[in-house]
Each structure stands twice: as C-alpha cells, then as structure tokens.
Amino acid sequence: MFQDKQVGYLYEVGNQGGIRRAADILGVNPSVVSRQIAQLERALQLPLLERRGRNVVLTEAGRLLAEDYFASRQRREKLENQLKDLRHMRGGTISVRIGGGLITAFIEGVMREFAKSYPQVFVDIVVGSMQEMLNDIVSGEADMALAFGPIGTPELKRHSFQWGPICAVVSPEHPIAQRQSITIEALVDYPLIALTENFGLQRHMNAMFKSQGLQFHPAYRCNQFSTAMGLSQAGLGISFMTAYAAADPIRLGALVAVPLDHPVASSAQCHLLRNSDRRFTPAAHHMWRLLHNAFRDK
Length: 298
Fold this sequence. Notes:
Keywords: DNA-binding, Transcription, Transcription regulation. The chain is α/β, with parallel strands linked by helices. It is built from 12 helices and 12 strands. The strands form 4 sheets. A 5-stranded mixed sheet has the order 4-3-5-12-6, with helices on both faces. A 3-stranded antiparallel sheet has the order 10-7-11, sandwiched between helices. Strand 3, helix 5 and strand 4 form a beta-alpha-beta unit. The N and C termini lie far apart (about 65 Å).
C-alpha cells in the first residue's frame, strides 16, 4: 500500500514543521518530498498534511503513520545494535547452572577472565542440584552447566574432570582434624551433615556408605554448601565436599578438609554439560572454552 521511504518523508515533515525544512534534513529537493507524500495520500485516500499559518502539520492519519514509523525505526535500530553486539561478541545473555561446591572455582577461574573480554554480556548464574541442572539443560532453559557427582548417561555433550577427593570438612578443634585421611567406618562415631538427595555429592556419600554395608544417618540436612560449612565451622558435625568447595574458610583456618579413604571419594568428577542441539553465541562459546580450560588445568 505504501513504502517506508514515503512514510519517512512524512515523519520528517511532521518533525520539522514544513516540507522545505524536511527536504533540507533529508538532503533532497522539496518537490521530491511533496510528490512522495502526495502519492501516499492517493494510495491511502486520506489527507496526511494540513496548513496552519506558515507551518505544515500532520492530520490525525498522518500522525498515526508517523508514530508507527518512529516506533518501527526504534525497534529496528535496537535489533541492529543487538545483532552487531553479537557479531562483535559484546552483547547477549548466557545462562549458566552451577553446582554449589563449584561456585568459587567458577568465579575465580572463569568469570574474572570472561568479564574482561565481554563486559556487556549479561550472565545469569543459578546454583542448583544435579537434577535441576540436567532438567534445565535438556529443556533449553540454560546454555551450559557445571555439575558434580554421578551423572548417569544423559544425551548431552559432556567433558568430565577429576575433582576429588571428597573430604570430611570439620572445624580445626574437631577430633579428626589432624588426620591425614579417614575411613567411612570411622565417620559413624560423629554427627554427620547431609545435603539433600538431589545433590551429586550426597549421592556419592550414600554410595560409599552402602559399599561398606552402612547407612548414612545424618544429624543435620541442608540444601546449601554454605549452610553445611557453617554447621561444621560451629563444631556441630562433619560436612562433606571437596577442598575446592571449602577453599575460602580453609584458607582462613576456619575449616579443615580430611580426605575420605575410599575409591569413590578419590575418583569423583565434575562435569561440564551442554545440549548438543543448542547453538552457542560467540560469547557463550568463549565461556564454554574458558570453563573447559580452567577445570582441565585444575
């Protein structure tokens, strides 16, 4: 029915209050502007301009066209900028799922470096359990995940890294704090702190106890590594995680990590996961590569 160029001329006339002034801004002859708007009026069978004194103003129909043109131009410019950002690896969003015991390693080993290269990329970080992460990757809610624990055989692209040993984490005053290692059997003499069953770490703990003909009977259960560490730091029991997960309080001398003497504990792995059908932006691909390199090196 009409062309964008014609509506663009109309918009500029309404903006400038006259055909000659609009033509100067557009860099064309005033007769070209008049002719294009006249063609537009004939096509729509509606008047689009009217004179008021020395000025030309838009009619109601003209105003509606001009407003739609302006809104469309803004949307198009925003889209062009977003595409340009993606081309130059600046903009966009990355959704990452992280196991609670891997947060410190992720921030220190990956996010610092990533933020230098892509300061304008929005990174959505969600800490979750193994099952929550697998669900989000499969459903497309997340770009990638970093998980710890037994994972089964999901149809996902995966890189696995050694991340053990799993340790008994206690306060420095705890009776086992000075040991070089501790067996599963020796743990039953003390109050234990469990994570919920959705955590890969807890699945490892249950498997180790079962292999020794024992059941894991905790005194406390929580759904955050930080809570488990807080309970251990208060001297209320033994929590379980890798030394990487408790790195900060261990460094400060608030906690001690005693490796578990069990094959499962020493061979525990973390997994970098993505859906092979999901297409990465350049920024997401860069983060995936940083994650792979950081955890491979550790």
